[in-house]
Amino acid sequence: MHPWIADRTTTFDASGIRKVFDLAAKLKDPINLSIGQPDFDVPESIQDAAIDAIRSGKNAYSPTQGIAPLRESLMQSINARYPSQDRDVFISSGTSGGLMLAMMSMVNPGDEVIYLDPYFVMYPALLKMSGGVAVPVDSYPDFELDPDKIAAAVTPRTKMILLNSPANPTGVTASREQLEAVAQLAASKNIALVSDEIYSRFYYDKSFVSPAEFNPDTIVIDGFSKSHAMTGWRVGYVHGPPEIIATMLKIQQYSFVCAPQPFQWGAVQAMQVDLQDQIEAYRRKRDLICDGLADRFEFTRPGGAFYLFPKAPGDAGGEAFVRTAIDRGLLIIPGNIFSDRDTHFRISFAASDETIRKGVALLNELAG
Question: PANTHER family per the record (predicted)?
Fold first, then answer.
């Protein structure tokens, strides 16, 4: 290793998802069910708002906390949802930026952070950067949030519980009762509760529930990337107790500085866009892929997001099955990127119906 490289960088690898993306760039016309981003473009009214901002000279730094119209619009929505809570909000450089700021603001070296396995790939890496200790709680085979398992993982060193519902990579949504139990556990133990809600608008069978409804100290991280197809625009937001938000802002000031200003103006318009047609389309895509694979694959039917996390057929494991699929031109993600186990693989159904049908046909062929 080069002598200039910091030791902390050796504690985690580059994202395995990026390696699959690199493969995708080399394959000619692959069946791509790997990418975790919407397959529709940014709605035109949002594009127009960002272009207008650029052309009217709104290209400088914004305030670190974000432009006032976006924060005011968000606060109006937050206060309507949590009317009796004292919450503040700021605009982060994507939800990934919000997650990093949360870790840097609250996790000391040696502090333990609980989250479910399977997990979003960034969680363990961000924890290692901040010196925290990951405590993954096994949620196989159904990927449900089990409050008893969370409670059993709590120790005197537990600093944070990190929730993600709907979840990446499983698409599983926690129930109201499960979220309330974990929220009350965190409150009773004085443990920070962080809720990653980037897929909050992708709910297919029930209404979205946040643990912040049951614990007013919950730190909520959300954004526009997935819901409005703005993944490259890097506009997220975080709301929670004012003292925590102020600390996160202090770190943002010396790191990300601010989210891109023109795209914040786009996000102001995004607050007015009706996404019902897109959500209905994803519900139909969810049904298309689940119905197509139900006879040959084991999986928990996702209630949200746009992912399916099936068990790989046979005994070779998830990574070996994914290699075989990629050799046949089908791009999917091995489950061991998101988990301590190598038994499953992730499909993104944020794709055209034609691509989904082709993928289903090839997966069923590979399953024998």
Answer: ASPARTATE AMINOTRANSFERASE
Using left for φ > 0, alpha for ψ between -120 and 50, and beta otherwise, residue 112 falls in beta
Mean pLDDT of the chain: 95
User: Which of 210, 237, 270 marks a domain boundary?
Assistant: 270
Residues 116 and 175 in one domain: yes
Dihedral sign of CA atoms 147, 149, 152, 154 in order: negative
Structural domain containing residue 286? 7-42+275-367
Is 75 found in the same domain as 200? yes
Contact 274/288 with Cβ under 8 angstroms? no
Residue 281 and residue 356 share a domain:
yes
Last residue of a domain, one of 217, 250, 270: 270
Rounded Cα distance, 59 and 110, in Å: 41
Are 265 and 321 in a shared domain? no
- Domain membership of residue 50 (yes or no) is no
Distance between CA 330 and CA 318 in Å, rounded? 14
Higher pLDDT, 40 or 155: 155
- Burial class of residue 86 (count of CB atoms within 10 Å of its CB; 0-12, 13-18, 19+): exposed
E strands present in the chain: 31-32, 88-92, 112-117, 133-138, 158-164, 192-196, 219-223, 236-240, 307-308, 330-331, 333-334, 345-348
Regarding whether 220 and 265 lie in a shared domain, the answer is yes
Q: Are 21 and 34 in contact (CB under 8 A)?
A: yes
Distance, in Å, from the CA atom of 247 to the CA atom of 40, rounded to the nearest integer, reads 36
What tokens does 166 get? 């709907």
**For the chain, how many structural domains are there in total?**
2
Residue 24 has pLDDT above 70, yes or no: no
- Measure the CA–CA gap between 342 and 124, rounded to whole angstroms: 17
> Over the stretch 291-322, which tens digit does the pLDDT of each residue have?
999 999 999 999 999 999 999 998 889 999 99
Within 8 A by CB and 6+ apart from 218, the residues are 183, 186, 193, 194, 195, 210, 211, 212, 240
Q: Is the peptide bond before 118 cis (omega within 30 degrees of 0)?
A: yes
The one-letter amino acid code at 199 reads Y
